[in-house]
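queue> holo job accepted (calcium ion)
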Amino acid sequence: MRTLNERTGLAAAIEAARLAGALMRANLNEPKKINASIQHDIKLDLDVRCQKLIETHLAAFDAAVFGEEGTSGDPAAEFRWVIDPIDGTVNFTYGIPHACVSIALQRRGKKNYETIAGVVYDPFCDELWTATNNTPAKLNGQKIAVSKKTRLDESIISMGFSKNVETMNEMLPRMNDIIYRVRKIRIMGSAALSMVYVASGRFDAYIEGGVRLWDIAAGGLILERAGGEYWHQQASPDETYRLVANNGLLRKKLAPKSK
Ligand code: IPD
Ligand code: CA
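queue> job finished
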């Protein structure tokens, strides 16, 4: 087995993300096999194929896998990969080129896991975001930083609505409140990309009511290493979180008015 640390893990995760990204790119406008579909969500055969490709590439390391398309390995292992093989599957299914690969490497601590490396790759714009716990956040090798916006009326806020009615019911009143106070709301359909857009200063915050760990683990580290605030709170034990990813200056202003 190869030695796993934030440096070797990051390099391998970059390679794996590029491999999966190439498969996504090749298939954007092709007919896609749908494995399962409900009103607000779609699962593609390509989700599974991309995760397998990533897992095969990372199999040289001794680590468990916690992924959207399945979990494997020893749950007590020191390390785990947190993988979203295609984040933005609905966009991708419809040929909308706004989707990405998200891979985080986590190390088990006494109480919680710590994310030590993160990669988010957008194969359609060929944009690769990276960070480790002791190196800066970068986009295509260049350091990035969050915005300095303090005024909501100058800010662009991205929101996500997940797939179930409960989170929609939680988020709609928040959107109704926030929309009048900000410059623009954006609903882009990829949580991981919205987070790295905040890390890059393109967006000023990203809010979602029920997002899974594989959507946010890599983006969370990248955001923190870009100077932002990865505020997340566990909403249910299956690693679902409430999230207010932001530039570190806006979270209180974005809180629901009644609180
Ligand atoms: C979804 C997307 C979406 C977010 C959902 C996620 P998927 O991931 O990131 O933007 O609102 O919460 O589940 O299903 O495309 O991997
Ligand atoms: Ca996802």
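queue> The longest helix spans residues 6-27.
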